[in-house]
Structures are given as C-alpha cells and as structure tokens.
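Thread title: Can someone regenerate the structure for this chain?

I was given the following input by a collaborator and told the matching structure tokens would be attached. They weren't. Posting the sequence so someone can regenerate them.
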Amino acid sequence: MVSLARKNLLEDIPRFLVAQAGIMFAVSLVTLQTGIFNGFTRSTGQLIHNADADIWVASESQVQIELTLPIPLSYVLQARQVPGVELAEALIFSGAMWRRSGSEIASVKVVGFDPNGQLFTPKNLKKGSVSALTEPYTAIIDKTTLESLDIKRIGDVATVNSIPTRIVGLTQGNRAIVSNPFLFTSLKSANVYLTSGQKSDLSCQLPSGSQELVCTNTSTRSPQSGTPIQPPPVPDKLVASDLITYILIKAKPGENLQALKKKLEAALPNTRAYTHDEFILKNQNYWQQRTGVGFILGLGAVVGIIVGVIIVGQILYSSVSDHLKEFGTLKAMGASDWTVYGVIIEQAIWMAILGYLPSVALCYGVATWAYATEGILILITPVSAIAVFGITLVMCVGSAIFAIQKVTRLDPAMVFKA
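Best answer:
Regenerated them for you:
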C-alpha cells in the first residue's frame, strides 16, 4: 500500500510540485509568523537580558519597560541598606533626540549604566569596549542601526539632544522590534543628555488672605535644545536628587527573592519589585494581551493553514477522482475500506514530510539573514518547529479525510461497467 501511495503521489510530477509548493507556502507562513511572534516577545525584554540582576525595582506606575515614571537616585543608597541585598546599581532608560547631519533627526533610547558596575553590560559587544564609556559623552550602538542613525564607523560624532557624542563601540543583536535604537552610555552622560536644554523657572505667589508664599518650580525644554552645545558641560557625578529609571538588585547567595522583594518595596516608597523572570513576563504579557500584535501575527498563521488545507485538499481530491477505478478494483478484490483509506492518508503524510523539510530549512535561512542584516530576531525553537510539523500533519491528513469522502461512496461494481 505504501508503494501504491508513492506511485499515486509521483505519477503526475507537475501536480505533485504544485501541491508541495502550496504546502511549503503554508508551512513557511506558519513557521515565520510563529518565529516572528516568539522573537518579538523576546525582543520586548531585550534590555532585561543585558542585565545580570536578580530583581528590578521600578515605579509602582510602571506598565512595561518603556512606559514608567522615574525614581530618585537616593533609592539606590537606601536599597543597599536592605538586608539580603549584595549589590544595587542604577539604570537610566529614556528617550532622546538623535541628530547626525543636516536637519534630519531620529529617536533613540538612552541606556545609562555604570561602566564599572557588575549588573549591566551590553551583550554581544563586537567592537570597542565598555570601559571606553568612562569618557564623557561616548556611546555604544548596535551595528544593525548604523544606517538608520547615519553612522559609518566607530569614531563618528552625532548630537544627542544638544550634546555632541562619539561612538566608541558596536554590539550585535541589541535591537527590539518595537523600540527605537538603543544608545548605551554612562550614567553621568545619560543624565546630561536627558537634562540638556532644559530651563527651570521658579514662580511664587501670595494667595489672598495667606501669609505664606506658594512657589512652583517648572522645568521646560528650549525649542532649540537640539542645537549642539559647544563646549558641552563636564558631566558631574549624580546626586541623590537626580532621577533614574530602574534599580538593579543582586541578592546575596541563598536569599529568598520573594521575601527580598517585599523588603525592598517596604523600604522604597511607591515602588514595585520584580524578579528577572517576572519582569520579562510582565513585558511579554503587555504586548501579547494589551496590544493587537499577537492577534495580527496569529491571524497570518491561520491564513497559512487555511491556504495549505485548500491546496492539499484539492490535489488529493483530484488524485482520488483520477484513480477511482483503481480504488474500485481494490475494493472488488476484497480490500477493506481502511486499506484504501490508508493509501490516501499515506499519500498525505508523504506530502506533509516532503513539504515540511525544505520549508523549515528555508525559514532558518531567512531567520539567520534577518538577524545578521537587520538585527530582527525570528526565533524558531525546537518546540515551535515540532509544533509546526504537527500542524502540517494535521493539515494534510485533514485534507485527506476530505478526499476520502469520494471513496466512501464508491461502488466496487463500477469497474465492471463500460
């Protein structure tokens, strides 16, 4: 029966190639869509993967890693006094304006950290060194963002807000699909970038019937804040009142992280603490459940499956129709219905295997190319590859069942009719 299934499959080569092309399209679409979704969810926490922290402390208003409120640097000093904390380091993560040439501007995400610290280091550093960030107004970017930021080589200078900045290093793979390019720099430089061009105004009023002045301190950014400052100010060491975005915590060996989280939240007002895994999951849930990204990518995968079912179903139905007399002969010779059904299902399984293998190889090639050239992660894991193979088998066998309906009503006596 296996031999008969193969003969039916390969009897008409053009028809076979059309069927395999349809299956390859469906499998490739499902594989790439799931890979893009997996890569997308991982890339939303790309910054978290660069840190070696057990716990992240953020504002209690934090929604996802790019949507939060700042907290004072003094919290870092307080966190270091909490029992069970081995290390506590500050991290600044905020948006800024990038200007390379002429009037063209771009948005970047400034990532300020301590170059001499232990809890945060840009991963996959290909050129340059983190120690170079100890020099004022230096930065490291990802090599896949060179073109979008109009950077040709290490040593080029651009303006971040109103501060001239020199590129001293390149990473590979530090790019989130939903985020602007990362600009890794020191805490001191990051603090100047984010406060440059700002003006502070103090206005005081004496309310009617009151003997005390009411003063309001407002901070505004000058419309010309993108104009380079020459020479730029010397970055000072951050003080307790300066604002940061996150506190990275390294727990002492054997410390219970859940208990340490509660102690940190009790010691630092208006904050929330997350373990490494909890913080990643919080970001993934935001993009999967509170945005339409997951729905759109899932819809593409469903479309691929529908296309595959239609194409395979048509090919198998046509093949069965062309071989009705042969199937009738088998039934007239005493072959059971399940024997005949087995030929069709076997044919569908071969179509699934022969369509799946080249499709997955092609998808791996596309994923490798996308990561190397664009820094976009299409994550095809062994689990997802096996799942797609299962979907392919179900798709093809389901189509075979549709074709089997033609044989179910077949009368063996038809082979004796003229």
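The CA atoms of residues 352 and 394 lie 9 Å apart.
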